[in-house]
Amino acid sequence: MVCQECGVKPATLHFTKIVNGEKTEFHICESCAREKGELIPGTAGGFSIHSLLSGLLDLEGAGKEKSAATKTVQGLHCENCGMTYSQFSKLGRFGCSSCYKYFDSTLDPLFRRVHGSTAHVGKLPKRAGAQIMCKRQIDDLKQQLQQSIANEEFETAAELRDRIRKLEKEMPQE
Predict the structure, then answer these.
(1) CB count, 10 Å around CB of 157?
(2) Are 86 and 59 in contact (CB under 8 A)?
(3) What are the strands, taking DSSP E only, across the chain?
(4) Which whole-number Å values give the CA distances from 124 to 12, 37, 85, in the listed order?
(5) Start-to-end C-alpha separation, the chain
(6) Residues 6 or more apart in contact with residue 116 via CB below 8 angstroms
(7) What percent of the chain has pLDDT over 90?
(8) What gap in Å lies between CA 71 and CA 90, rounded to an integer?
(9) What is the pLDDT of residues 37-94, one digit of tens each?
(10) Which residues contact 105 (CB under 8 A, 6 or more apart)?
């Protein structure tokens, strides 16, 4: 396979990006990876996948004019470990568990852009996933219940309420 950047050398670095269910594959050579500032395994310094991902996800907004909101986000920092949003966007990981609290406002849009959603919708293990599946079913029924109440379908709402109660009693414990 030929490098997608230069179109000359063989691609030695391959990765796949899936955003909103749309799969995009990237294939680049060592030279193009070096030009982009990435290091290759087996070379001095190694390869930083976090740097590559932050560039792919455009976590830093490279090439875009920084708005006031972007400057505010860049000013965020964790009071526990001192990590700044700029450091997070370069590393692609947090410094401590408190970072989730301090960077909370930036995470939902990031998860939506990367994963297409803020809720896990993938496969669940059969044994360990029973409680999660039951909780999802209860959440779905609660949404239906709210919709029934809004539409003044009180008989349907009563049935949904009873199903929710039954599921809550039967829900497997961890």
Answers:
(1) 18
(2) no
(3) 13-19, 22-28
(4) 33, 38, 32
(5) 48
(6) 19, 20, 21
(7) 18
(8) 16
(9) 554 444 444 555 555 555 555 544 444 444 545 555 667 888 889 888 878 777 777 8
(10) 73, 76
pLDDT at residue number 54: 56
What is residue 53's predicted lDDT score, i.e. its pLDDT?
Answer: 54
Distance CA 115, CA 102 (A): 21
Distance CA 55, CA 41 (A): 18
Give phi and psi for 9, each to the nearest 5.
-85, 160
CA neighbor of 164 nearest in space, from 140, 129, 147, 133:
140
Residue that is written with structure tokens 């290091």 in the block: 39
Residue type at position 43 = T
For the chain, what percent of residues have pLDDT higher than 70?
74
Q: Which of 12-16, 103-107, 155-159 has the highest mean pLDDT?
A: 155-159
Predicted structure pTM score? 0.39
* The amino acid at 71: K
113 neighbors 61 (Cβ within 8 angstroms):
no
Q: Provide mean pLDDT across the span 18-25.
A: 80
Q: Are 83 and 95 in contact (CB under 8 A)?
A: yes
Residue given tokens 């932050």 in the structure block? 54
